[in-house]
Amino acid sequence: MAVQLLSGNEACAIGALRAGVKFFAGYPITPSTEIAEYLSRKLPKIGGTFVQMEDEIGSICCMNGATAAGLKAMTATSGPGFSLMQEGIGYSAMTELPCIIVNVMRGGPATGSPTRSSQSDVMQARHGTHGDHPIVTLCPWNVKECFDLTVEAVNVSERLRIPVIVLADEITGHMRETVELPEKPLLWHPTNPRKPRDQYFHYDDSNNYDSNIASFGEGYRIHLTGLVHRKDGFPTNDPEIIKWNMDRLRKKLEDNESWLWDVTFEDLGSETIIVCYGSTARSAMEAKRQYERKTGRRVGILRLRMIWPFPQQRLVSLLKSARRVIVPEMNQGQLNRSIERTVSPDVPVISVLRYDGETLTPEAIIEAL
Amino acid sequence: MDKFLDFFRLDERFPHMLCPGCGVGIAMATMVRAFIELGINQDKLCVVSGIGCSGRVAGYLDCDTFHTLHGRAIPSATGVKLARPDMHVVVFGGDGDIMAIGGNHFIHAARRNMDITVFVLNNRTYAMTGGQYSPTTPTHEQAATAPYGNCERSFDICFMARASGAMFVARSTTYHVVHLKKMMELALGKTGFSVVEIVSQCPTLYGRYQGLGDAVSMLKWIKERSIDVSKVEDPWHVPGKFVIGVLHDREEVAPYTELYQGVRNEARKQERC
């Protein structure tokens, strides 16, 4: 492993390549474009494909097509493009196609602040597309994690066959750090073997996840549809099967929640605990350091690497002794609601918010401490 | 006949959900006959469709079938073709699906010269949702959302395809099934982006709104209004007629899959970058 000076966006692209991504379809948008630029240079070298589509709707559909034909594929975008991609995210959830989207957040709504940072797509990442659907969202806080969580996104998405969002932001995307990236990160491989064609059902109860699923061109003659479908993939209006289909999608997360939960923490015995994610976690760490040096009092910190599905049960036990919770976010308060629901009602959850495009500083958090 | 029936998912999917007298079935069966004529392997064929009556075609065929989102058949097919250049990738869609919500994808796939064949069934209406006006509904005609007459101008699908850079453009109808099969074969055999517009009857909605009667009288209506391309001077300006035949067949240039292979070769040569 060599030490490199990389931006978060570059680390993300390298993570995708080392996780086996062979296909990228995207559309230029600040501040995520470096991912597309990097992959447009590297993918053709390894026999992969980079294609710049006419818009983000085309990008995600093209990616879904490549995935259906058996490739590990991904796309990257930012707020406005992420809005356009929502229908494709729903299609991925319904057809159970792996789908990896890096959203390097900028300020919104609409065109918003393209070159400024923000964490205002937190709720959109969870609920952006219509209908009940499973989704996983990972939040890197530094350049190394842009790599790690992209690899993780590929693994989770392939394993559960659901959309996975890497929710970076302008700060993590454009920041440069020296990192050592593993040449061969740990990759998921299917554990359930594939049944022969005459016994194969694309949506069998036995293959909701962990399975080796058939792709186009392998002679299985599969049918994929965004309509509610039976286990053979064909549409139906039968209420019983509609319920089965929706339950099946929900179970993908329910059955796997415990290993999906991904939090790091320190000093949770303290009275005050900062719960943070993404680039604001950097300010939170610095706030903790400065505050402890100045006052001699410990502050707990709990950082979510995965924000969706929200690790409620895990947080209930981790925050049991907290008397006060501080939630720094670069938005008008999005994840704080989930945290309020997690702690007991007499524990105040104090939001430290900044949404003017500037970095939320350690000083702002210290003030709340 | 066996080969023909083998191409359908007879056990699971029939009877179909199309209205009596619909043109989609004729077009679908003709497409299958064209596949058989060309000896296309069912295991190496992916039929991609969007949403609408025409979008349901994918679900009846026994090959890899991809029923995608409304308007997104072409970008989805692009992904399949780029991932599996060895497969035949065919898009079957309607006028609303391909020319309205999917219009931008259509233009750019043609410009890119994606190696796919697009069959556009033009029944001049959004039939699945109940007969609203589509981008191919002629001006002044009535529709569910044009109770006082359509004030918009309509698209000429073939003209649009040619202008966008398609390699092959033809038009046929559900009346001229032998002709339609020939056009489909030519399109499928052409390397690069090829388009066949299929003028079709929709007796349930379009026909009812225009007072054109049942399926048989609609087919007669189509027959009477069709004119072979050899009989007109300028096939692009024949108002009130369906000019049928090969409208555009340009000298083949490399399709996108081949061009991108060139990018790969170039990328491997360059050390830096």
TrEMBL record, chain B:
It comes from the Bacteria. CDD domains: TPP_OGFOR. InterPro entries: 2-oxoacid:Fd_oxidoreductase, THDP-binding, TPP_enzyme_TPP-bd. One of its GO terms (biological process) is cellular respiration. GO terms for molecular function: oxidoreductase activity, acting on the aldehyde or oxo group of donors, iron-sulfur protein as acceptor; thiamine pyrophosphate binding. Keywords: Oxidoreductase. It holds the Pfam family TPP_enzyme_C. The keyword Oxidoreductase applies. SUPFAM superfamilies: Thiamin diphosphate-binding fold (THDP-binding). Residues 53-198 form the Thiamine pyrophosphate enzyme TPP-binding domain. This is 2-oxoacid:ferredoxin oxidoreductase subunit beta.
